[in-house]
Design goal:
Length: 63
C-alpha cells in the first residue's frame, strides 16, 4: 500500500469524525480497510471509497 499524503490523512480523519458525530464507531484495519459499528451492528468497508459511499448512504455525507 502506498504511503498516505497529508491530504489523504485529513480526508480520512474528517470522514471518521463525521461518522463519529453521527454515533458510529470506525475501526481502521491494517490493510486500509474499515469496520463501522453502531448499535451492535457492523459494516465492513474494504477501502476508503467504500467508507465514503457508506457514509453517503447513511446521510452523513452530502454529494
Amino acid at each position: 500500500m502506498a504511503a498516505l499524503t497529508t491530504t489523504d490523512s485529513k480526508a480520512i480523519a474528517n470522514q471518521v469524525a463525521r461518522l463519529a458525530l453521527a454515533g458510529h464507531h470506525v475501526i481502521k484495519g491494517n490493510n486500509g480497510d474499515y469496520t463501522v459499528c453502531k448499535y451492535g451492528l457492523t459494516r465492513y468497508c474494504a477501502n476508503f471509497a467504500e467508507l465514503q459511499a457508506f457514509a453517503l448512504k447513511l446521510g452523513v455525507n452530502h454529494e
